[in-house]
Amino acid sequence: MPELPEVEVVRAGLAPAVTGARVLAVEVMDPRALKRHTPLGEGPGLGGHGRTLSEETGRGRAADFERRLTGRTLTAPLRRGKFLWIPLAVDTGGLAGPDTALLAHLGMSGQMLLRATDAVDDRHVRIRTWIEHPDHGELRLDFSDQRLFGSLALDALTPTSPVGSIPAQAAHIARDPLDPHFDDAGFLTAIRSRSVGAKKLLLDQRIVSGVGNIYADETLWRARVHPDTPGSAVSQRGAVALLHHLREVFGQALSEGGTSFDEQYVNVNGQAGYFSHSLNAYGRGGEACPRCGTAIKRVPFGGRSSHYCPRCQRLAR
After folding, report:
1. Is 2 assigned a catalytic role?
2. Rounded to the nearest 10 degrees, how much is the dihedral formed by the CA atoms of 209, 215, 217, 218?
3. Residue range 42-54: average pLDDT?
4. In terms of Cα–Cα distance, which of 162, 8, 16 is closest to 79?
5. Residue 203 is inside which H or E element, if any?
6. Catalytic residue (one of 3, 6, 8, 218)
7. Is 16 among the residues known to form the active site?
8. Residue 276 near residue 260, CB atoms below 8 Å
9. In 10 A of CB 260, how many CB atoms?
10. pLDDT category, 155, cuts 50, 70, 90?
11. Which secondary-structure segment (H or E) carries 258?
12. Average pLDDT value for residue range 162-184
């Protein structure tokens, strides 16, 4: 699943092309990509968020999404954790409301691809949007998703403390460590006050957003913390180091365009990131630890896997 660095790479790539652009037309090719979208007049959550939609529900969502987005002007894209959104400029017609955003969650394999209007079709395109930018002319924005865990939606913006606003569907998650308003002290307290394993704490989006399996393993390796070490067993100094290395890992991944193991994550131009070449633990099961030479261990973890060095990352209790 794309994590913070991958979503930030996509956000930064979209910004020059979509900021100030007007939506000329929208075509929903597969309504299943709108599972997070609620049409006007429906209560929240109607139809569920599963990948299966009835034909009638799908048609209704598609028609509502196309109608409310067409003609709108896009502003600068924003991100928190793994959520990406593009606020819409105030609409005097009131079709989508004054505080609405185009919300994207990439799920496992979602892609936001910028294309020329006459470009050949990308694989697995679910929603296509034609836009016109004052400087760049007409472009096409394709939402492609092979596995259909991702989605687009129009969502109401809600104020967030201490500044800014966020789509209602993302309001439950914490700020991420690259956010200038991230609460360092709150993070340290949350980590050290819980008996849950360190990796589970890093993956808890209510404590810190944007961290997934890859960057949790890399952060713990750099901090020399075993994935199962209880947060309450981590010293204040160790918790500070954990946050430092998390920011360090995110920063390096951003500079290298994110992590790509296959075609499921690419930037807006369809190009893969290369941080996978810099990974020290994740995906290196059985290989020598770059620090001490001990074989990296791979163990099951919540339907996925954890990777760590049994020598460098001893379990503290």
Report:
1. yes
2. -130
3. 54
4. 8
5. helix 198-203
6. 3
7. no
8. yes
9. 19
10. very high
11. none
12. 93
Span 51-80, pLDDT tens digits: 556 788 889 999 999 999 999 999 999 999
Q: Which of the following is catalytic: 36, 82, 115, 126?
A: 82
- Is the pTM higher than 0.90? no
Catalytic: 11? no
| Predicted pLDDT of residue 48 | 44
* Active-site choice (51, 59, 147, 304): 304
Q: Of 2, 31, 39, 177, which one is the catalytic site residue?
A: 2
Strands (E), the chain: 22-28, 78-80, 83-87, 100-105, 110-115, 125-133, 137-145, 151-159, 165-167, 297-301, 304-308
Q: Which two tokens stand for residue 308?
A: 């760590």
What the block records as the tokens of 279 is: 């990974």
102-129 per-position pLDDT tens digit: 999 988 888 899 999 999 888 799 999 9
User: Which domains, ranges and CATH numbers included, belong to the chain?
Assistant: 4-170 (3.20.190.10), 184-308 (1.10.8.50)
